[in-house]
Amino acid sequence: MSSPVLTCPHLSGALTCPPCPAGSGLADLTHLRLAGGAHRCAGRVQVLHEGRWGGVCALTWATPAADVTCRSLGCGPALRAAQVSVGPEELTWVESLRCEGGEGNLLECELTRVPSPGEAQEGQVRLAGGPHRCAGRVEVFHAGRWGTVCDDSWELRDAQVTCRQVRCGHALWAPGAAQFGEGAGPIWLDGLRCVGTETHLARCPARPWGEHTCNHVEDASAICSGEVRLSGAPDRCAGRVEVRHQHLWGTVCDDTWGLREAQVLCAHLGCGPALEAPGAARYGRGSGPIWLDDVTCTGEEPDLFRCAHRTWGQHNCHHGEDAGVVCELR
């Protein structure tokens, strides 16, 4: 996702607007700031909503919106409007924004607000019943109710769209037969046939909503990579362990790395039990940062990040000590 950045003349005066109380609804979007710039009149556009700062999607960002923003901040006309990439974990409060340029604040522009966390919207997808947020039974919100997806024709391409929609990386596995337990309520989708490039599951060809020949023992599931992946091996359940932190992929040092740590990782990836926990870069040397060292798990953690470890990026290793794993392939 990209977020707009703009630069305004840096004025000595400041315009003070009455702050809106956190959580007061769409009116919070009149409270703006420019983050990460050299001064208060330059930076990434953020709005305050429900007590938290979030961005504005840059797809519809243009100079008129930048002018309105600069003016509402007491910063004069916009000198430059640009876009910058931000991570998927950053909140986005405004999905689209179209201004004429003469509005007093962004709220007077034509905008579409991103629903608040916890506020389900039509076609929203979640993964339920799994060991972490990136694995579980696929559920879709439709007509005000959560329902499941039938596993008829369900395959990795459908899971890929699901993983993309919930921002969990790429699909590792697309199990059916209620792998993560039977759901309840309606079965909303059946006969899904995604290409794999769709942004939302509801955009894939399927039977009409609620029309199916299934029961909940056929509920479809997805297991996504999330912030972990295995590299350097031919199958999905073996390889060099890599984790993502601060938008960068890096490796794990083999100090203290053993079967308990490997077991946590295998379970996270939807693979079978850990068979080996090789070190010494068996699957080749990685590149980039070495993110984790001295990882120590009990074996019961839902993911590797819940295990004890040194501070991110703190280590006494080199890539010749990159940790690997071999899990049973399901």
Automatic annotation (TrEMBL):
Keywords: Disulfide bond, Glycoprotein, Membrane, Receptor, Repeat, Signal, Transmembrane, Transmembrane helix. Disulfide bonds join 99-109, 150-214, 163-224, 194-204, 253-317, 266-327, 297-307. Binds to extracellular matrix proteins. Binds to pathogen-associated molecular patterns (PAMPs) present on the cell walls of Gram-positive and Gram-negative bacteria and fungi, behaving as a pattern recognition receptor (PRR). Induces bacterial and fungal aggregation and subsequent inhibition of PAMP-induced cytokine release. Does not possess intrinsic bactericidal activity. May play a role in the innate defense and homeostasis of certain epithelial surfaces. PANTHER family: SCAVENGER RECEPTOR DOMAIN-CONTAINING (PTHR19331), SOLUBLE SCAVENGER RECEPTOR CYSTEINE-RICH DOMAIN-CONTAINING PROTEIN SSC5D (PTHR19331:SF487). This is Soluble scavenger receptor cysteine-rich domain-containing protein SSC5D. Pfam families: SRCR. It comes from the Eukaryota. GO terms for cellular component: membrane. It is a single-pass membrane protein. SUPFAM superfamilies: SRCR-like (SSF56487). Coiled coil: none annotated. InterPro entries: SRCR (IPR001190), SRCR-like_dom_sf (IPR036772). Interacts with LGALS1 and laminin. It comes from Cyanoderma ruficeps (rufous-capped babbler). It is found in: Membrane. Residues 32-109, 125-225, 228-328 form the SRCR domain.
